[in-house]
User: What shape does this take?
Amino acid sequence: MSTAIAVPQRTADGSFTLFHPQLGATYHSMHGAVQESMHVFIQAGLARQEQPTVDLLEVGLGTGLNLLLTWIRCYEGKCRVNYTALEPHPVNADTLHALAHAEELAWPGLHAPFVERMCASDGAWQPELGGLRFRRLHTPVQDLHEQGAYDLVYFDAFAPTTQPELWTDAVMQRMYAALRPGGVLVTYCAKGEVRRGLLAAGFAVERLPGPPGKREMMRATRS
Assistant: This one.
């Protein structure tokens, strides 16, 4: 699934996302890419973490917007993060330059190190910078076998209607196992079948108000 043909599109809040013609889907909400990421992943997830250093897993790195917003929070001195991203189909450097997420967020100095990390060799931890350490893994989420390794999961895969294999009960069981007790998973998705899969895995699940254009999202906590 190449991302080389993905097309940048401006969303309602002025920020860019990508439209993937092969999947017929965008990487973020057209109601606002930054608004969605801030609401779901930063405000409902990262901002609620109390420990000084957060071990974080992202399922679906995509354009790296969640990574960049997390990194900015680290630069602001609000946390330190060890950030692992699962992305079997990384976005290429030319597309990242066209999206210009760092410039759009008024952090132009982060553009070059952001692109460097997004395009780095698979599996290697990149040097810590601004309180964030990053690695990208080619591992599909179905093959993740880590146990009790993370405090927080950003579950940002394409929607269940687009890639249902990423939202199965078995995947939610892997997410439960990957989190430490008290760990949290946040996702924009609020579909009933996903909620039931989270509950069956052992999570306590909250339905929260969604970002602009979406009524609800979910936050799940491991017991």
